[in-house]
Write a structure and sequence with these properties.
The protein is an alpha+beta fold. The protein has a single domain, classed as Multidrug-efflux Transporter Regulator, Chain: A, Domain 2 (Orthogonal Bundle), CATH 1.10.1660. The chain is about 35% helix and about 10% strand. It contains three helices and three strands; from the N terminus they run E-H-H-E-E-H. A three-stranded antiparallel beta sheet has the order 1-3-2. The longest helix is centred in the middle third of the chain and has 10 residues. The protein is globular.
C-alpha cells in the first residue's frame, strides 16, 4: 500500500490565506494589510479577494514570494 503524499497548501493553484496568516508570514500586524488596502488599493502590490462576509483572502503564492524576498506579481 502506498502512502499518500500531501502537498503544502501554498503549492496548490489558487491557494489563499487569511489576512492574519499573511500578516504573520510577513511579520507585520494584521491591521497593516487592511490599512494599506484601504489607503492605497493594494498591499505590497497584492490585491485580495473579498468574500461576501467582508473577510479578505490573499494569494498564498504571492505571500510566500514576498516572504522569501521576491516581489508580488
Amino acid at each position: 500500500m502506498q502512502a499518500k503524499t500531501h502537498t503544502a497548501p501554498t503549492t496548490r493553484t489558487g491557494a489563499k490565506v487569511t489576512t492574519e496568516e499573511a500578516a504573520a508570514t510577513l511579520r507585520v500586524a494584521s491591521q497593516t494589510p487592511r490599512a494599506s488596502l484601504c489607503r492605497l488599493g493594494h498591499w505590497m502590490g497584492m490585491r485580495p479577494v473579498k468574500l461576501p462576509n467582508g473577510r479578505l483572502l490573499w494569494d498564498a503564492a504571492e505571500v510566500e514570494r514576498l516572504a522569501s524576498g521576491g516581489v508580488a506579481a
